[in-house]
Write the structure tokens for this entry.
Amino acid sequence: MNLHGHLSRIGRSKSFLLAVDFDGTLAPLVDDPDAATGDPTSMTLLADLAERAGITVAIVSGRTYADLERLVGLGPPVRLIGEHGNDLGGGADLDDGLLARIEEHFEAAADRLPGSFVERKRRTVAFHHRRAEEEAGEAVAASLADWALGLPDVVVTVGKKVVEAAVDSVHKGDAIVALRGELPDGPVVFLGDDTTDEHAFRALQEGDVGVKVGEGPTAADYRVGGIDGVREALAVLAASARR
Ligand SMILES: [Mg+2]
């Protein structure tokens, strides 16, 4: 079945979960992370779908919940899931000492690379180099990733212009499993563009739909070229989900 057919079928099902990444999926990637804004049509479609019976809409992002609240412009009934699901609760006690050590090491690197900065989240330290010189940024990111991989029990993810080191962390796959557990039976649609979204694609089951946005290896069954393709996919769901 092609993507259009699969989405139409899910749209007509009694209930389903629509989970969507934010940056690079709903919002074009921009140099200043604070300037990200969702595609207006996609955001309207999400708000509209979330109002309909049996449909749960969630935006699942690596950003903090506060960041999402500020940038997304949508609230309930749209669910905002920050930090890859770490703010859904649960998980082990935090190892603050280890997080502090990672933060210190990442900060030292950021001090030496103009345009880079460190973001401390609940269970994660992220090194961003979107505004740094590209080659130097990639080199520093690779060395930080190597260093963090040597730490015990730290999960390292290299994304687009970001390295994240997570302690006792959950990933987007866990977020999908947790959301699925809260909801009535029904399929899941997930769309995302980055490495961290692969965890979510791998958590999908038969009958679900995973859509990779843009290039790169993926476990998703379908692919769209970019933000435009996401908008079209949401429009297909909205057209078939008449209630
Ligand atoms: Mg993304």
